Amino acid sequence: MTRKKWIIFLGIFLGFTVLTKAQETLSPFLGLTTQGTVAGISTKVEKAIEAAQFQIIGQYQVADKPDLKVICFTRDDLKKTTAHFKDRGALASVLKIGIRKEADQVEVSLLNPVYMFVAYFGENYQEEGKALKTIDQDAKNILIHNFGALTDFGGSLEIDELEKYHYKMMMPYFDDPIELETYDSFTQGLSYIRKKIANSQAAIKLVYEVVDEENQTAVFGIGMLDAETGEGTYLPTIGERHIAALPYDIILQKNTVSMLHGKYRFALYWPELTMGEFMKIMSTPGDVEDVMEAITEE
Predict the structure, then answer these.
(1) Among 9, 79, 127, 296, which one has the highest count of C-beta atoms within 10 angstroms of its own C-beta?
(2) Does domain 178-294 have CATH number 3.30.310?
(3) In this predicted model, what pLDDT tens digit does every residue of 67-83 receive, in sequence order?
């Protein structure tokens, strides 16, 4: 092949690669329906998670409803890999499975790992692509090997859109977090947040805590159970099927604790929301911020 032909071939190949990437889409959730009870399916899921060498770090009844449950889990290779992404990468160190009773069936759903990885890491995802793809497949196999084929749901975004996602013009991106508080040190901040959560009078639940002393990061998953402003208020409006996006999380890095903006995070995991539906929960991002400030501010 002559040099000229090689250049033409390379240009066509790269153009096709870019086009393929732009056209490929990802959905935020993968799920299936099965027979049984929430308790029975939960036990089966827990055993499958542990058999895949993942560690269950927390679980709770979303909105305090027995028919809505989320199981949160992680693994050493996941924590190690996500720690390489310094811009709140540890938020992706927790995977989640939702279990939801509907009529005479139970829906089991997985927050799509690769969807989260691409959204949080953007184009830098490829830096740890091999390790993240292994984790992604292992997580999906938890359900595939024990329940059957999974179906995408919850909307879809093209990969290049997901890498730099925001809901609408002037809306926040992943790298527009809300900084909640700054402490004297990581150790002081960790101790303070733990104490505030333990002594909180609000209707919240600490679902999980993932601490990396070496990299000075800590992620907290906080269930919001308040009857007026919590999960039970906004989920019926935007969709209970998406419970595997919960609980909401905050991250302490070094001496600063922050959270993803609600207008980013809710839109990311409910990408099908119309502007009209989004407006119905317009107070929710602020409600979430109020709760997280209450457990972090000095």
Answers:
(1) 296
(2) yes
(3) 999 999 999 999 999 99
